[in-house]
Amino acid sequence: MSLLCLADFKAQAQKQLSKTSWDFIEGEADDGITYNDNLAAFRRIRLRPRYLRDVSKIDTRTTIQGQEINAPICISPTAFHSIAWADGEKSTAKAAQKANICYVISSYASYTVEDIVAAAPGGLHWFQLYVQPDWDINKQMVQRIEALGFKALVVTVDAPVLGNRRGNKRSLLDLEANIKLKDLRSPGESKSGLPTPLSMPSTSSCWNDLPLLQSMTRLPIILKGILTKEDAELAVKHNIRGIIVSNHGGRQLDEVPASIDALREVVAAVNGKIEVYMDGGVRTGNDVLKALALGARCIFLGRPIIWGLACKGEDGVKEVLDILKEELHTCMALSGCRSVAEISPDLIQFSRL
Questions:
Q1: Which residues lie closer than 8 Å to 185 by C-beta, 6 or more apart?
Q2: CA distances (Å), 14 to each of 8, 18, 31, 71, 124, in order?
Q3: Active-site annotation holds for 248
Q4: What is the tally of structural domains in the chain?
Q5: Residue 323 in contact with residue 316, Cβ under 8 Å?
Q6: pLDDT value at residue 202
Q7: What is the mean pLDDT of residues 301-305?
Q8: Does a structural domain hold residue 193?
Q9: Which residues constitute the domain of residue 121?
Q10: Is 79 labelled as part of a ligand binding site?
């Protein structure tokens, strides 16, 4: 069967994965209001194409934190890729390197960061950090990723506690047991002082901790999970280099705004002082263009990457990225945009639907 769009990959992945694995990947908080609104919010936005423009050449390239990528479509940090494919994050990293886009590697990856980077040594890698209560551990992690050539540190801020994922509660215990039994990190990992894959971040982490973290690293720090102008303004005040507007894919606090809706508020608040990105609900190239028109520098993909991995491993991830890039290319041409720089707020309007 031909897989022509991200929805095709989702349907095929669900057939291939166990119910426990699928529930973990698709897990949503409470009633799934935010999970569903992440998708529905894009449908409330309409495009305003401009015609009679020379679109014989379309350029999807852009830069993030000074690094060029082939398309404004990157990979969000998601946990335990080996649930979907044996080589897990190593396959994901290889696909990202071939696509020349950024991959944010999760703190809760199935493999060590050394293994993942070795699989794709030429890739653009950022690292997702859940700040731990023990600052010696945070320092060790930062030093380790700097030595491996990571280009940014992504601090996830919206998970001081785990969201109320009812579906996961019905099946996650078996999954957690399997993960622990597999010991997904390398044998030497337990000696490094790093937390176990299922350890939780600090519940006391706050804005006052950021200067300490900044003193530990030369890397730009990106905050993932910002949804309000107040927190966006605080990020600028604290010399943060970027924001990923995100509601954790609707997995944390339910009934918060869809990411694409929160994006406008955050972009207005930072007023061009730092780069803003977003994840949550992107399923088509049209969605990518809408996010860029509202001020996102690029988008990050979570669940669709796992779908691609489950279907075809590295090739599946690359196909998901290629499909989205090709759809964006087509949408740009049909909207009269020859480059990412030409995508502006004038290209969209909000529907009453």
A1: 111, 112, 194, 197
A2: 10, 8, 21, 27, 29
A3: yes
A4: 1
A5: no
A6: 74
A7: 98
A8: no
A9: 6-49+64-181+199-350
A10: yes
> Does 329 belong to an annotated binding site?
no
Q: Is 282 annotated as a binding residue?
A: yes
Is the pTM above the cut of 0.70?
A: yes
Q: What is the pLDDT of residue 48?
A: 97
Residue 188 lies in a domain: no
Q: Look at residue 90 and tell me if it is in a domain.
A: yes
**Angle, CA 156 vertex, CA 151 and CA 162 arms, to 5°:** 150
The CATH number assigned to the domain holding 304 equals: 3.20.20.70
Out of 81, 125, 248, 329, the active site residue is 248
224: annotated binding-site residue?
yes
Give percent above pLDDT 90 in the chain.
80
Instruction: Classify residue 297 by burial, with Cβ atoms within 10 Å: 0-12, 13-18, 19+.
Output: buried
| Residue 130 in marked binding region | yes
- Residue 137 falls within a domain, yes or no? yes
pLDDT at 169 over 80: no
